[in-house]
Amino acid sequence: MLRKLRQAREERGMRLTDLAIKAGRNRNWLHRIETGQARLDVLQFSRLCRLLNLSPSVLLEDLEESSSDDDSFLSISPLWRNKAG
Description:
Layout: H1 2-11, H2 16-22, H3 27-34, H4 42-51, H5 56-66
Helix pairs in contact: 2-3
């Protein structure tokens, strides 16, 4: 899915900075998203799809088909940390 987002951006001739500005974020944020170093929430995903004129449902279908290949993005990170350990 992240590869498709990046591919769509590149096909439209947009630099990381261009799309990040349109999304109201900075270049580093988008780079981290595209490289899998940061998580993309549903609202951010929807906004990027809209800016790239992509259908979120198509990308999610692709995600379902390829999840067996690379499901590292499916890991869940807690919103809090247990101070005891």
